[in-house]
Amino acid sequence: MDRSDQYQDTRERILAIGQELIVGRGFSAIGLNEILTRAEVPKGSFYHYFQSKEGFGVALLERYFDDYHACSALLFCNESISLRERLLTYFGNWRKVADNSQCQVMCLAIKLAAEVADLSEPMRIALSKGMTRIIEQIAQVLEQAQAEGSLSKQLDAAQLAESLYGMWVGASLLTKVNHDIKAMDLAYKQTQQMLQPLQTP
């Protein structure tokens, strides 16, 4: 392994372990020493990979959203099910993750949104850009469903995508606070109604 590969491998390991720890306890609660110890990286070499903890947070979010976008793209390209089913599966997966973890695990974006938005402008911008990408991705699928005739063209795809995403972000926060899946159950039922297929004559 050459130096470039070794650098990327070590940087990726720090990010992966950092995400695992931060999803469980939050950004502020995790110290760099804990991350580096788990990653088996010398404590003095952190700044070889990241300019600061804030810079690490930005890189963490960018990595997370890149992976998230790629996984969502695979689902949304699954031609074995309808576009509406792809969207319902996408949102249903949110509920499944929360339910399987007994409402303890939420995605990194949800975990950090309230925590760092007022503490770090660079991290807030990374969150905003990442969430906007997700909304745009959902809007593209809605537009495809409209083009194939399975959803009404009277709906504004961009507005509907933002409404759906916002509803699920809110449901995720309520689920986390209440340790109860009810908010996500309600969000899923509302999503089904908002994505009602066109009735054929």
Task: Tell me about this structure.
This protein has 201 residues and is mainly α. It contains 9 helices and no strands. Helix 4 runs parallel beside helix 7 and helix 7 packs across helix 8. The longest helix is centred in the C-terminal third of the chain and has 28 residues. The protein is elongated and about 65 Å long. 24% of the residues are buried. The mean pLDDT is 88.
Q: What Rg, in angstroms, do the CA atoms define?
A: 19 Å
Anisotropy-based shape:
elongated
Strand content: under 5%
Report the end-to-end length measured between terminal Cα atoms. 63 Å
Strand/helix succession = HHHHHHHHH
β-strand number: 0
Largest sheet: none
Overall residue-averaged pLDDT value = 88
Q: Count the DSSP helices.
A: 9
What are the main properties of this structure?
201 residues; mainly alpha; 9 helices
What is the gist of this entry?
The protein is mostly helical and 201 residues long. The chain has nine helices and no strands. The model has no long low-confidence stretch (mean pLDDT 88).
